[in-house]
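Wed. Picked up where I left off yesterday with Protein nirF. The coffee machine is broken again, so keeping this brief.
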Amino acid sequence: MKRLIALTGAFAFYTLSASADLRATGDLGVVIEREAGTVQIVNTSKPAMLSRIEGLGDLSHASVVFSRDQRYAYVFGRDGGLTKLDLLQDQIAKRIVQAGNSIGGAISQDGKVIAASNYTPGGVKLFDADTLEPLADISAVYGDDGKLSKVVGLVDAPGQRFVCSLFEANEIWLIDAKNPRQPIVKKFKDIGKAPYDALLSPDGRFYAAGLFGEKGLALLDLWQPENGVEHILEDYGKDDEQLPVYKMPHLEGWTMAGDWLFVPAIGAHEVLVIDKKDWELVKRIPVAGQPVFVSGRPDGRQIWVNFAFPDNQTVQVIDVKDFNIVKTLQPGKGVLHMEFSPRGEAVWLAVRDDDRVMVYDTETFAETARLPAQKPSGIFFSDRANRIGW
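Structure written out below (C-alpha cells, as returned):
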C-alpha cells in the first residue's frame, strides 16, 4: 500500500510538473526583431516574452501567418526565407529559402497551402503547409517580351483562392488553388498604374489595390469577378500638392469599420474615409504626418494611426463615431507596427528605435506594459489564424 501511495504521489507530481509547462496557443504571438534576424514568442494575455528564436535571416520586411490550430507561425523574410516556427516547442520546425527577395505570404482557407509572393524572381510559389514541399511556381510574366513583375498585396480569399497584384504589370491575379499543384490563374489587366499593396474586406468579398502611379484604387468584387476591376477615388487629391513619400503606406493595415473604409493617403497628412456602399470619399481627416498603418480596433470603434519619418514617434487615435482625433500619444522613436489583442482591450506597439514593445489600454490610453525587444518591427498574434485575408 505504501508503495502504491508513493507511486501515486510521484505520478501526481509528474502530472503537475508537465501541466506547468503547458501553454495555450490562443495566448501566443510573435514579435519580429528585424536587424538581429530573430523572433520573440510572447504571451499576449499576460504580456511577457517566452522565448527568442534565432536564425531567421533577413527580417527587414517580414510578415507572418498562422496555422489554423495556431501552433505554427510561418515567417516570410525579405531574403526569400520561409520559416515554420513551432510556438509550443520554441524552435524552428522547418526553414527553406524559396526566392531571392520576398515581400509576404498567405495561408489557404483550409490551412493546407502556404503562398509566398516574391520580388525576385517575380511570382507566387505554393507550398505544403506541413512539410513546406513545393507545390507550384507561378511566374509573374507579363507583356510580349516576357518580363517578370514584382508581386505585392498577396492575400487568401474564400474558395481556396489567393489574390495578388503585379507592380510593373499593372495587373491583379486571382489564383484558384483548389488543386495546388495545378493552380488556375485569372488575370485582370490594365487595372491602374503600379499597384503597390492591397487589402481584402473582412467578409472576403472586396479586394482593393492601392495605386502608386496614379490617383485612386483598383477594386475587384470577388463575388462577381466577371465584372472586372473598378477604378475608384480617381479624382481624390488630383489638384493637391504632392509631398515626398518617405514610406509607403500598408494597405493590409487599412481598416473597414462598419460602413466605412479608412485609408492612409499617399504623400499627404490625411486619413481618408470612404463609404463602402458606393465607394465615394466621405471625409479627409487631417493627421500628424504621413500615415503608414491605419488599424481598427476589433469592435470598429477606434482607428489607430502611425506615421512615416519624421513623425514616427507619434500615434493618433480616431473615434469612428464622429471621425475626430481623440488621443495623440508619443510612445517613443520609430513606431513601426500595431497589433490589437483579439477583442481589442489592448494594443501593442513596436517602438523600433527605443528597443521596446509597449502595450496600451485602448479605453484609458494608459500604458500597461513594456517589453524589451531588439529593433522590433512587426507584431503578429495567433488569432490571425481565424481571419480572412490576414
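Quick read: DSSP finds one helix and 34 strands in the chain.
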